[in-house]
Amino acid sequence: GCGICVKKCPFNAISIVNVPDELEKQLVHRYGENMFKLYGLPVPKTGGVLGIIGKNGAGKTTSIKILSGQLKPNLGDYSSDPDWDRVVKAFKGSELQTYFSRIANNELKSVVKPQYIEAARRVLKGSVGDLLSKADERGLFKDVVDKLNLKNLLDRSVSELSGGELQKFLVAAVLLKNADAYFFDEPCSYLDVRERVRVADAIREFTNPSKNYVVVVEHDLMILDYISDNIVVIYGEPGVYGIASKPYGVRAGINHYLNGYLPAENMRIRPEAVRFRIQVAEKRFEESEYPVVKWERMIHQYPSSGFKLVVEEGEAYPGEVLGILGPNGVGKSTFIKLLSGELKPVEGSVLISVEKVSVKPQELSPKIFAEETVSQALRNASTEALNPASWLYNELVRKLRLNRMLDRRIEELSGGELQKVAVAVSLARDADLYLLDEPSAYLDVEERIVVARVIRRIIEEKKKTAVVVEHDLMLQNYISDKIVVFTGKPSVEGYASRTLSIREGFNTLLMNLSITVRKDSETGRPRINKPGSVLDREQKARGEYYIPD
Ligand code: ADP
Ligand code: ADP
């Protein structure tokens, strides 16, 4: 079916032609002939944060552009510039009528934290402190800087910020603006778990959702759940059309999305439900099997910067995925360099070291590739990757749906497409150890799961080891067999735990953050407990921070 209705469609075609008439009346915007169409809009309401969830290419950013007044909806008539009267009339009787008349009369001021942040580094000139004080229309500079822990960055030039630092800086700049509507398009990419929670808390604390409109798009479902009061699902055929659902309560909305069925619309948006496996039994290994990598307790210190890293002992077996949790700047890359022998520890040693390491860096930019097109990049990584008869092609190109992208120029890919190519290229290379740093950034929920499965299968097939840094906890739980928790003071010192089971690892991390997580009874997904709630206090008293049995 085309996904528009649950009824059996006589045309049985994935086509915009079959959109029922009643839906056609809700056409809000069309970019041009045979171009993407958006039906309906998420309706922002004061009194709570509205979360938007949906596949990439379904129209989330388009919705934000329209609701923030950057894009005037053309109601499907792309040949002429529609006047505001017509737009306002089209939404007669809905809450969007008042909303759009305020936009039309310049009475609604909006600010947007854009999805892709990399461009800001080139465009914004000056130091973090100067730019934030210029942005500060509300006299909240000190509060926002404190809350987002930006104090140490105030003298730094924006061009020198890491991805996570840039993300927090942009969120802060948006919060300091005096607006009626605040939009955050994927505010968590490049942030660790503590920072994600901090950003979520800051958005709730400083946007005043009881008076203002606050809209958040986020694919880390644990954070989206924590930040939102209501959820709108945007579904449809990515790149072809998108339809905004009615608003649901936050728990129900996320569960309906995962279940693939929207009851108020009587609409199946996916043939099957998405489920996250929550606990994994420890893998059993043949006695004859040797670890791919094994290390004793080690200490390393850089003479020039003085940064010191202590690593507890550990090992990883063929086919195992080692998940890394913890902040940036506490020695994850240093740890990998120790395992490959590039760095020698001052104490302890690596007992079985790896020779070749293949890396997917955290920050995405076309510049991480020397090649011009997707197929060139894949071919240079492995000659087998483009051979349709090979298992590598099946896993990487087919499963990640890169088939249709092969001839595209890397420079023209969207963030999500670039991420999938970067993961595929790093996994295609021949190596003993694969380091994948935040493979989820810019991917939607379903793409995250596909990428997680691909990582696991390639590593199992190659009988090698992957180290995956991932801050989306639902996903990290899905990818990894074991966990190493990193703690410490960024740029000063770091500590890496021994290899822990998933439960031990998550418990250790969450205890450090003083956050407890329960399990949703319907879908099994992890949900953050409200600080101080009965469950939060009970779980803390028992020391069960992550999903008690
Ligand atoms: P999402 O944010 O959900 O990933 P977007 O709203 O960015 O989706 O995009 C929805 C669709 O609209 C995509 O297929 C995209 O290619 C298309 N699109 C976005 N902007 C334009 C534009 N200016 N002209 C034509 N098509 C566009
Ligand atoms: P992570 O991967 O967790 O972000 P890194 O291992 O890259 O952390 O770096 C940890 C810290 O070590 C950095 O903050 C930096 O100060 C220091 N560091 C990294 N590489 C070097 C180096 N070659 N010389 C001196 N100090 C370094």
What labels describe this entry?
binds adenosine-5'-diphosphate, alpha/beta, nine-stranded mixed beta sheet, 19 helices, 549 residues, globular
Give a description of the structure.
This protein is of the alpha/beta class. The protein is built from 19 helices and 24 strands. Strands 1, 2, 3, 4, 5, 6, 7, 8 and 9 form a nine-stranded mixed β-sheet that branches. It has an eight-stranded mixed β-sheet with strand order 13-14-22-21-16-20-19-18, sandwiched between helices. Helix 16 (445-462) links the parallel strand 19 (433-437) and strand 20 (465-469). Helix 8 packs parallel to helix 9. It is globular. It starts with 20 loop residues before the first helix and ends in a 7-residue tail after the last helix. Bound molecules: adenosine-5'-diphosphate (2 copies). One adenosine-5'-diphosphate (ADP) binds at residues 302, 304-305, 307, 328-334, 490-491.
Silhouette:
globular
Report the C-alpha radius of gyration, rounded: 24 Å
Bound small molecules, deduplicated: adenosine-5'-diphosphate
Distance between the termini: 40 Å
Mean pLDDT: 92
Main sheet: strands, sense, barrel? 9 strands, mixed
Task: Supply the helix-strand structural class.
Answer: alpha/beta
Helix proportion range: 25-40%
What is the tally of beta strands?
24
Strand proportion, as a percent range, falls in 15-25%
Taking pLDDT < 50 over at least 5 consecutive residues as the criterion, the unreliable ranges are 6-18
Number of helices: 19
